[in-house]
Write a structure and sequence with these properties.
This protein is mostly helical. The mean pLDDT is 87. It contains two helices and no strands.
């Protein structure tokens, strides 16, 4: 019985010494398990995920850089094309203006030419009419002379 009592007293001492914060060999073992798990998880999960995230961030950065470069280039091209378009419009307006001026000059020359032709036709018609008038007067004078000779001849016969 005594042995039983000693055994129970040792068990009760063991129970009273163990508690929530028992600093025996299990605590360092748990710390080593935690560190081993942390290192293992770091190599298995954290580094690959980190590498994927870094690669994704690099891809996004490169994409943004190339997109901004493309945008700058597109803006430059837009400005260049707009200036070329404005210059082309000015040239086209100048060509149209010159063509209108040339057409106006041609029209005015044609009108002057037509007026000169009309004046020449009038002068020619007037001269032709004067010639016909003079011829008509001469023929009338001749006929009047003939008629007056005939009248004179008839009067003298009577």
């Amino acid at each position: 019985m005594l042995t039983l009592q000693i055994l129970f007293s040792q068990i009760s001492e063991a129970e009273s010494s163990g508690g929530l914060f028992d600093f025996n060999a299990t605590l360092p073992l748990m710390a080593l398990q935690f560190l081993a798990l942390t290192v293992t998880l770091n190599f298995i999960f954290y580094k690959p995920v980190s590498n994927v995230l870094d690669a994704r961030e690099e891809y996004i950065r490169n994409s943004l850089t190339s997109a901004s470069a493309s945008l700058v280039k597109a803006n430059e091209l837009t400005k260049k094309y707009e200036s070329n378009l404005a210059e082309s419009r000015k040239k086209a307006q100048k060509i149209i203006k010159n063509a209108q001026e040339e057409a106006q000059l041609v029209v005015s020359e044609k009108i002057k030419e037509a007026q000169k032709d009309a004046e020449q036709l009038l002068i020619d018609a007037y001269q032709e009419l004067n010639i016909q008038k003079e011829q008509a007067l001469k023929s009338l004078e001749i006929q009047v002379g003939i008629l007056s000779e005939q009248i004179k001849g008839k009067l003298l016969e009577n």
